[in-house]
């Protein structure tokens, strides 16, 4: 009896190690994001001359380069679920404020699909997982959804359904940008601010789970899209500062400032934010923490 009890306690400790050893971003001493090796176009797009920090998810997920088209190089998504341990994608966690930038085109057969651009889960020893961050494109409803875990481990949902988002589903290349601040989330399409919603306080991220990209909600398979890039910048202002200078027919004049290291970070940003009043979220829920039971336990 004592032997069985000791064995049970041992198994519980072993299974709980991956969960309890994971540290949230707020608990880590070093939050520094790694430098990003980006094409020169990004310095023109954002008009700053400093090093970008963040994560190139195409590089993290080892996406191979595929067809070269008139619109640029496409990435191969393959047919297997695109997931990796979160700690291998974000070794020091994810900055509490960040920008997500994805340049893509939906195909005719998938323009009505519901799929995750990014999906981050925490996992505990009982094989239950809770959603930490998720960015969803819903083709049927022509909406973009941002889900996050609240400070009290509740689930926060923000649905963006501005009609200007409908262009994302016209089967042309578009740049989808998301600015995640400490108290707001903003959606951009082709470098134009579409909608901004005030958010509740979010929790930090535990790195013991898994991270998925470009996966269909229905079956977890890669969504059939043409993808050029998917980036996370450790700066919520990049999505706003991006001018899409590399888009066809777009010409950007250099922004002249007296302080090239500081002024470009606020040029345009304050102007847009002050000219557009913050909208209270129309689709927000403070629900009990979202718990999901995966059918494919082998993924974890």
TrEMBL record:
One of its GO terms (cellular component) is collagen trimer. GO terms for biological process: cell adhesion. Residues 48-236 form the Thrombospondin-like N-terminal domain. Its main location: secreted. Keywords: Cell adhesion, Collagen, Extracellular matrix, Glycoprotein, Hydroxylation, Repeat, Secreted, Signal. Coiled coil: none annotated. Residues 1-22 form the signal peptide. It is found in: Secreted, Extracellular space, Extracellular matrix. The keyword Signal applies. Involved in mediating cell attachment and inducing integrin-mediated cellular reactions, such as cell spreading and alterations in cell morphology. Belongs to the fibril-associated collagens with interrupted helices (FACIT) family. Homotrimer. Interacts with FBN1, fibronectin and integrins ITGA1/ITGB1 and ITGA2/ITGB1. Integrin ITGA1/ITGB1 binds to a unique site within COL16A1 located close to its C-terminal end between collagenous domains COL1-COL3. This is Collagen alpha-1(XVI) chain.
